[in-house]
Amino acid sequence: MSVYTPLSAEQLNDALHPYGLTLEQHRAASHGIENSTFLIDARDSGGRPRALVMTLFEQLSAEQLHPYLALLLALDSQQLPVPAPLTHDGRQPLITVAGKPAIVMPRLPGHHEFSVDAEQCQQIGGWLARLHACDCQSLPALPTERQRLAQLAGQLPALPEHERALATALLARWQAIPAGHTLIHGDLFRDNVLWQDGRISALLDFYNACLDCPEYDLAVTLNDWCVDPDSGQPMPERQQALLSGYRQQGGRHDPERLSLALAVAALRFWLSRLAGPVSSHSEGQGSKDPEEFARIFRQRIEALQQATGAD
User: Fold this and answer.
1) Helix (H) or strand (E) holding 41
2) Which of 84, 95, 166, 231 is the Cys-Cys partner for 76 at CB 3.0 to 4.6 Å?
3) Which parts of the sequence belong to the Aminoglycoside phosphotransferase domain (predicted)?
4) What radius of gyration, in Å, describes the C-alpha atoms of the chain?
5) How far apart are CA 228 and CA 185, in angstroms?
């Protein structure tokens, strides 16, 4: 959550006014790469402290954000640990700050954990199954991951020449499979989860959510939680634990489709990282290393070829 649009204390205080809140202090958040995010301490009209997060959206318009915000409110009503946006003026979640759409959310308790073990992987698998079981049929339509993949195909020429044809064929094979109807997170990396007292306290950043095959969501998650980032090698104990947690909460998946999705998801994040950050001038993390997912892609595509007997 790097900051591409710096804000003054005065701007932040003005942004909090519609919610009846007053700024006390703030700082930039340090994780993520797409939006500008601030951690805020404020007080309400009764003087009670409020811990908040404000996100300015650098790429999405107010119209594009509408289905995601409706989703967050719906998931909150279904008892998932998500930061539903605060509303004002008759349940309006959006405000405009520095000419960009923004929301204010409660800052849920917890912290990030990047050195995870098998037990933690089992927990995230369980929450993924619960998310996949959520009812969102009555909500506004979300953009599809297939559309994002089609856009990211524009980055294929940036791949090494000997891998370009393989990656192109892999995307075409996945796009030929009909999209599923399961609600998926699409970006459930470790930096999108909070922990408190050894338990998951929050699932964050639903701005890649859509309806698709559950195997794709499992693949995205497995490629971050259950892989050695230095070698790209899968870590079997963690992977088995995550899938066990998924099954224990009622999740079901097709192993053959998961093998394909693991390679596709690795390619997706290799391509998106090659696309770079929103801006070359940012405070915080900025863009992530594309080579991490290049390594994972090579491992996953080799495993897929071995499973299918392809060259």
Assistant:
1) strand 36-43
2) 84
3) 27-233
4) 20
5) 22
DSSP string, 196-235: ETTEEEEE---TT-EEE-HHHHHHHHHHHHSB-TTT--B-
What fold does the segment set 9-106 form as a domain? Answer: Phosphorylase Kinase; domain 1 (3.30.200)
CATH code reported for the domain at 118-308: 3.90.1200.10
Q: How many residues does the chain have?
A: 311
Q: Domains of the chain: which residue ranges?
A: 9-106, 118-308
Q: What is the dihedral of CA 297, 222, 148, 292, to 10 degrees?
A: -40
Give ∠ CA 47-14-19 in degrees, rounded to 5.
50
CA 284 – CA 306 distance, rounded (Å): 40
Q: Is 102 helix (H, G, I), strand (E, B) or coil?
A: strand
Query: pLDDT per position in the chain (311 positions), as tens?
Result: 467 899 999 999 999 999 999 999 999 886 656 789 999 999 999 999 999 999 999 989 999 999 999 999 999 999 999 999 999 887 889 999 999 999 999 999 999 999 999 999 999 999 999 999 998 888 899 989 999 999 999 999 999 999 999 999 999 999 999 999 999 999 999 999 999 999 999 999 999 999 999 999 999 999 999 999 889 999 999 999 999 999 999 999 999 999 999 999 999 999 999 986 544 443 444 457 899 999 999 999 999 999 887 65
CA angle 193, 120, 259 (to 5 degrees): 90
DSSP type of residue 44: -
Residue 29: CA atoms inside 13 Å, Cβ hemisphere, count? 23
Which tokens hold the place of 196? 């408190």
